[in-house]
Amino acid sequence: MLLLVLTLCLVSCADSALDDNPNDEKDTLYNDMYFILDGDKWKLCDFEGLDVTSPIFDEVGNNFCFSLCPVKQNGKWGYITQTGEFIIEPRYEMAYGFDKNGCALVSENGRYGIIGTNGQYILEPIYDSIGPVTNSRCIAGSNGKYTVLNEIYEPVSEPLDYYMDFFYENGYATLYTDKGMKGCINADGKIIVEPIYNELGRFAKNGLANFKLGNRRGYINTEGEIVLELEGCIDAAEFHDNGLARVVFEDSIYFINEKGEKVLGPYNNDTLINPYYFTKSGLCIVASNENSLVGLMDKNGEMLTDFAYNIIMESSFPVEYPELLWIVVREKCGLMKDGKVILEPQFQFIDGFEENGTAPYTVIEEDGDQKY
Fold first, then answer.
1. What is the three-class DSSP state of 127?
2. Distance of alpha carbon 184 from its chain centroid, rounded?
3. Which of 15, 31, 281, 296 is deepest in the core (most CB within 10 A)?
4. Contact between 351 and 345 (Cβ < 8 Å)
5. pLDDT the model gives residue 350
6. What is the rounded CA–CA span in Å between residue 221 and residue 105?
7. CA distance 189 to 137
8. Cα(236)–Cα(200) distance, rounded to whole angstroms?
9. Mean pLDDT split into 10-residue runs, the chain, 372 residues
10. What is the pLDDT of residue 28?
């Protein structure tokens, strides 16, 4: 299940930009148009199932945005309208759907760039890689140097020698040296934490990020200053929105506040439970060391459930419902809310919820067939 969730979360820059305004023409997903694989080629059909094109496409994108969809023909990618006609002729080695700003990622001659809906380059194909836009920023790499771009792909930093992944909600991105050391950069492209740390987490709402520097562990602020160092700590997690962080010592686990005070615990000692982390809804998933089953604990350390589940996991794709948790008992999946079972475990799997409040599920019938 975890592998599936992680796989589903790997969306392209095109997919992630289609959720702002479903009533806006440019963001509409044209669900009345769809592609059908006919032999080894794809054809475009309308909502009545009538052919709009013959089977002529090698590969196809998954949506129309700005009334354009990427398709591959004769080994090259281009963009068609709902009539099946090319408005941007096939010329690209790879092409992705348009985002809400009318920008699409394409590659040509082994380099990546950004085009507009007219097929003209907004950003010339000069980069080895261009990451997805997250929190109005993305990372473009070229010849071992990386540049911060804004949501319309304008550079906001000089090229840096460090690799960067993506920007988190707090406006910071982790940067890495070629030896794997970590630091941090802000949305203006300014290095605020030099890459000297073995480990460096995200900055939480309280402005603190967990670090490992050699054998030292603790927390730094957004100025890069060490404000909390934990003697004897062997693992320190990021702070949750509730102001608590999970820290591990040789013989026990605690939750601490931003002052370093031990608020909850010790665990794994006389309590015989192992707390994992706080979910977005503020509940903590914990496991029993006696039978490896899991349950839920509230922020005050009070158990809300028995240790009765093989798995408890957040369900957040493609639309987040933080109050809902997947539960699994003997390979059957159900749902929990606020520590109460609202759907008894009975399905093989439950996928993430859509914006309309529904979720697909699968069952295994007596003859062994999987049904959706």
1. strand
2. 19
3. 296
4. no
5. 92
6. 35
7. 10
8. 10
9. 34 35 39 85 90 96 90 97 95 94 94 96 95 92 94 92 89 92 93 95 94 96 94 95 94 94 90 90 93 94 95 81 92 94 95 85 89 90
10. 39
- Total Cβ atoms within 10 A of residue 267: 21
Distance CA 17, CA 326 (A): 26
φ, ψ for residue 267 (rounded to 5)?
A: -115, 170
Phi first, then psi: give them for residue 302, nearest 5 degrees. Answer: -90, 130
Among 103, 86, 92, which Cα is nearest to 12's? 103
H-state helical runs in the chain: 2-8
Nearest C-alpha neighbor of 133 from the set 105, 112, 162:
105
Assess contact for 117 and 66: CB atoms under 8 A.
yes
85: CB partners within 8 A, 6+ apart? none
pLDDT recorded at residue 317: 66
Model pTM?
0.73
Residues 302, 314 contacting (CB under 8 angstroms): no
Rg (CA), the chain: 24
CA distance 272 to 287: 9
- Tell me how far the alpha carbon of residue 338 is from its chain's centroid: 24
Alpha helix stretches (DSSP H) within 30-112: none
Both structure tokens of 6: 């992680």
Q: Give the count of beta carbons closer than 10 Å to the beta carbon of residue 253.
A: 21
Cα distance between residue 333 and residue 143, in whole Å: 47
Measure the CA–CA gap between 96 and 103, rounded to whole angstroms.
9
Q: Which amino acid is at 359?
A: A
Q: Are 218 and 209 in contact (CB under 8 A)?
A: no
Q: How far apart are CA 15 and CA 36, in angstroms?
A: 20
String of DSSP letters for 247-263: EEESS-EEEE-TT--EE
| Count of residues in the chain | 372
